[in-house]
């Protein structure tokens, strides 16, 4: 919205700063961070009053989790509100990719909100039917995938790009949309599964968002794409505004989610943030890189899949409990120890993902 101020610029004044994506990204970050600090405590107070007993705690979960009974959920509203307001304020609103990613984020937040509301109202860990959630999630992702394909330049429409291998493209045609659906839905549910300990999910999400933001900025500039030998996707540079808002809002949320958490993000936040990461990867043609950058989320999801399939076949468990962060809890690791080590792993994976930009 503030980009319109550039129309008042003669090229050598303060208004000219709004032409620069990096300047507006800084503004988006600060706006979202302030949003989190200003509205965080009032939102938590409202959620606590309205939810009463807070988020239900699984009866078969680690014993330490029963101490968290009464903690309100739906804290993802704070993150979504922060990144939405900062993006609308600082991004160029004539950029299709920005609206596509916002569409996915808000829609998935709505699904998560309905699920959280059902859990709190019924005081059970079972909210909205999993089939309904998946059906809605795939429908939203299908629209986003088709939207992205329409926005991509003709030479990239329907193609899957590979990292490391220079100019390697695989033509998927119409199958690109189903592929994009799997990426977005998979990312959303993987982040959702990771959100099980105080502060565990939000920091890896911010790390992944920061990495994808850098990639989006790079692939949206011809000079960078020529130097790095990556595919140019016009318009993706503005995604950096969104990711900066996500990081600012995430930090504001983490202030209240740090152990012991005063609020949980709930499915409202985890589905929205995971869906956003998937949508960014689809927009920038870096779906495979997302699997590297978000490797922690992949491992969390795989641990659940492996546990379920192995148990159905043998009646035995591979892990003491899935997702895998609960396995380490059962082994006696302290919660902060698990969280910080998983943060470190996320940072290492992000650096590997960034390295694929230059490794050609």
From TrEMBL:
The keyword Cell membrane applies. HAMAP family: MraY. GO terms for molecular function: metal ion binding; phospho-N-acetylmuramoyl-pentapeptide-transferase activity; UDP-N-acetylmuramoyl-L-alanyl-D-glutamyl-meso-2,6-diaminopimelyl-D-alanyl-D-alanine:undecaprenyl-phosphate transferase activity. Pfam families: Glycos_transf_4, MraY_sig1. Its cofactor is Mg(2+). The chain crosses the membrane at residues 20-44, 65-91, 97-114, 134-151, 171-193, 200-219, 239-256, 263-282, 288-311, 338-357. This is Phospho-N-acetylmuramoyl-pentapeptide-transferase. Its EC number is 2.7.8.13. It is found in: Cell membrane; Membrane. It is a multi-pass membrane protein. GO terms for cellular component: plasma membrane. Keywords: Cell cycle, Cell division, Cell membrane, Cell shape, Cell wall biogenesis/degradation, Magnesium, Membrane, Metal-binding, Peptidoglycan synthesis, Transferase, Transmembrane, Transmembrane helix. Pathway: Cell wall biogenesis; peptidoglycan biosynthesis. Mg(2+) binds at residues 192, 267. The lineage of its organism: Bacteria, Pseudomonadati, Pseudomonadota, Alphaproteobacteria, Rhodobacterales. PROSITE patterns: MRAY_1, MRAY_2. One of its GO terms (biological process) is cell division. Catalyzes the initial step of the lipid cycle reactions in the biosynthesis of the cell wall peptidoglycan: transfers peptidoglycan precursor phospho-MurNAc-pentapeptide from UDP-MurNAc-pentapeptide onto the lipid carrier undecaprenyl phosphate, yielding undecaprenyl-pyrophosphoryl-MurNAc-pentapeptide, known as lipid I. It catalyses: UDP-N-acetyl-alpha-D-muramoyl-L-alanyl-gamma-D-glutamyl-meso-2,6-diaminopimeloyl-D-alanyl-D-alanine + di-trans,octa-cis-undecaprenyl phosphate = di-trans,octa-cis-undecaprenyl diphospho-N-acetyl-alpha-D-muramoyl-L-alanyl-D-glutamyl-meso-2,6-diaminopimeloyl-D-alanyl-D-alanine + UMP.
């Amino acid at each position: 919205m503030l980009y319109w101020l550039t129309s008042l610029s003669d090229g050598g004044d303060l208004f000219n700063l709004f032409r620069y994506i990096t300047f507006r990204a800084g503004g988006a970050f600060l706006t979202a961070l302030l949003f989190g600090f200003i509205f965080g405590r009032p939102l938590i107070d409202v959620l606590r009053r309205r939810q009463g007993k807070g988020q239900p705690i699984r009866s078969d979960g680690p014993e330490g989790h029963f101490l968290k009974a009464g903690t309100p959920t739906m804290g993802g509203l704070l993150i979504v509100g922060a990144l939405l307001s900062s993006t609308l304020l600082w991004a160029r609103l004539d950029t299709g990719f920005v609206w596509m990613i916002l569409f996915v984020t808000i829609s998935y937040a709505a699904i998560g909100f309905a699920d959280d509301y059902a859990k709190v109202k019924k005081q059970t860990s079972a909210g909205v039917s999993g089939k309904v959630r998946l059906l809605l999630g795939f429908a939203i992702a299908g629209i986003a995938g088709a939207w992205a394909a329409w926005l991509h330049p003709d030479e990239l429409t329907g193609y899957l790009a590979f990292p490391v291998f220079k100019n390697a493209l695989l033509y998927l045609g119409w199958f690109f949309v189903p592929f994009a659906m799997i990426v977005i839905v998979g990312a959303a549910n993987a982040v959702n599964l990771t959100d099980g300990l105080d502060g565990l999910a939000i920091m890896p999400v911010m790390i992944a968002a920061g990495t994808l933001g850098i990639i989006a900025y790079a692939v949206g500039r011809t000079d960078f794409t020529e130097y790095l030998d990556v595919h140019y996707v016009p318009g993706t540079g503005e995604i950096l505004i969104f990711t900066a808002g996500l990081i600012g809002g995430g930090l504001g949320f983490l202030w209240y989610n740090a152990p012991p958490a005063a609020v949980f993000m709930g499915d409202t936040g985890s589905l929205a943030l995971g869906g956003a990461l998937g949508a960014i990867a689809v927009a920038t043609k870096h779906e495979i890189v997302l699997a590297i950058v978000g490797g922690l989320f992949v491992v969390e999801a795989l641990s659940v899949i492996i546990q379920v399939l192995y148990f159905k076949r043998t009646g035995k468990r591979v892990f003491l409990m899935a997702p895998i962060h609960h396995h380490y809890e059962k082994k006696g690791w302290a919660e902060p120890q698990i969280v910080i080590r998983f943060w470190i792993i996320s940072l290492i994976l992000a650096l590997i993902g960034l390295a694929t930009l230059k490794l050609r």
